[in-house]
Each structure stands twice: as structure tokens, then as C-alpha cells.
Amino acid sequence: MLRRTLIFYLFLAAGVSLAAARDLALVSNKANSLGAITLPDLVKICKAQTRSWPDGKPVTFIMRAPSAPEMRMFLQKIYEMPEGQVKELIATANHGRTNHPAILIADSDEDLVNKVASIPGAIGVVDVYSINSSVSVVKLAGKLPLEPGYLLHGD
Could you tell me which residues are beta bridge partners of residue 55? Predict the structure, then answer.
């Protein structure tokens, strides 16, 4: 009985781990001319260090809550800081920008896609299976989601 219980909990832990390891994609508002972005430029956008696109549109980065399990890999690879520091960064980045926040938090992947589609200059990170025709997929470091070597591939 103890062995069955142990096997069950190991299986459960593996399932939770796999559920959190999602493939993410970078998506953009269709009005943006952004087709590709470098990793350093994405980091600057995510940390609100880039305020506008070359055409003058303000940049808005949209993501799921830093506490969401599916964002763990993104926080590690892009922000390189723990959840608490990312939350502080978001609060600081949005301070005084009530009309046009630098970083928005979406409640769901569907909400995220809708926000990116409706905000000119918006870019966001979302589960690849939530992408629809209302947004454009952006190459990251020369790769598209699901291509070998893509940075935001869930491990």
C-alpha cells in the first residue's frame, strides 16, 4: 500500500510539473510592424526600459500574473529574478502611468490575446495553443515557437 501511495504521489508531482511547462509564444498587435525581436530587446520591454516603438507608439507588455505556474520559466529566462521582484518591477514601471501602463497582467490566456489585439503597440507572452488570428506571432532570437532551440519552450 505504501508503494502504491508513493507511486501515486510521484505521478502526481510529475503531472503538475508537466502542466506548468508550457510552450509560450510572443505575440504582437497586428498594427505593429514587429516581426522579430532579439532577446536583449525583449528583456528591455519586459522590464519597461523601452517606452516606445520606432514608429512612436507606446510599448505595452502584457503577461499572466508572475505567480502563475506557467510563468515560472518565463521569469527565470527573461526576468532572471524571483516572482516578488518582478511584482515590484511591475508596480514601479506602472507608477504614474495610469493612462497607459507599461506592463499589464491578464487574467487568462484568452484575456491576454484580446488585450494584445485591442491595444496598439502591445506585445505579450501567451501559451502557443491560445493564439488566434487576432494577433501576430513574433520571432524571438530568429526562431518561432515550436522550432528547435526556441527560448520559450517549456522544459
Answer: none
User: Is the residue at 48 inside a domain?
Assistant: yes
Cα separation values, 46 from 5, 17, 132, Å = 42, 25, 22
Q: Tell me: the pLDDT tens digits for 47-73?
A: 999 999 999 999 999 999 999 999 999
Which neighbouring-strand residues pair with 106? 64
Which domain, by its residues, includes 35? Answer: 22-140
Mean pLDDT of all residues in 20-47: 92
| CATH code for position 42 | 3.40.190.10
pLDDT per residue over 109-155, tens digit each? Answer: 999 999 999 999 999 999 999 999 999 999 999 999 999 999 998 86
Q: Is 109 domain-assigned?
A: yes
Please give the grid coordinates belonging to residue 3: 508503494
Into how many domains does the chain fold? Answer: 1
Residues 6+ apart with CB under 8 A from 93: 47, 48, 101, 102, 103
CB neighbourhood size of 147 (10 A): 11
